[in-house]
Design brief:
alpha/beta; six-stranded mixed sheet; globular; 160 residues
Length: 160
């Protein structure tokens, strides 16, 4: 049975109270990967995977999940500024559907609008060279995506 693919709020009910989450920023050439601590307060970068074939990419993600004892995935969904979903969002959903057949862990979709732009501005502000930005942008975008999701989950816990 494939893992559920749900909006963040709904996916959270499929995860235990504690346990790390992996955040993913899917690009056409790379996948940025970040992980949270088990308390889900802080996202940190793990690596940038150079995309090869789906099976190889998925195998690396599953290996990282096993190494870090994660309980779920947060996948950045690139929604257009007008709220519509274009080809990149469709590609992300297709990746999630295929990946869901390989893991029982719930996959949350989280709106990643402007994440890469925000990270790029931050890196430019830190005077990071263009070449170095290209190397780390996806991993930092994954951190940005996962931290946003963690902050939203923390707000939900406080409101309960």
């Amino acid at each position: 049975m494939p893992a559920p693919i749900l909006p963040l709020i709904d996916a959270a009910s499929h995860w235990p109270e504690r346990g790390a989450l992996i955040g993913l920023d899917l690009g056409t050439k790379t996948i940025g990967v970040a992980v949270s601590n088990s308390d889900r307060r802080l996202a940190t970068g793990v690596e940038t995977i150079k995309r090869k074939a789906f099976k190889a990419d998925a195998a690396r993600l599953l290996a990282l999940a096993a190494e870090r004892n994660v309980v779920g995935f947060v996948l950045g969904l690139p929604i257009n500024m007008d709220g519509s979903e274009g080809p990149r969002a469709q590609s992300t959903r297709a990746f999630a559907r295929n990946f869901a057949t390989l893991t029982p862990l719930a996959i949350a979709l989280w709106d990643e609008r402007l994440s890469t732009a925000a990270v790029e501005r931050e890196l430019i502000g830190m005077d990071v060279s263009r070449a170095r930005r290209a190397e780390v942008i996806d991993e930092h975008a994954a951190i940005f995506i996962l931290q946003g999701a963690l902050d939203r989950l923390a707000t939900l816990r406080r409101d309960r």
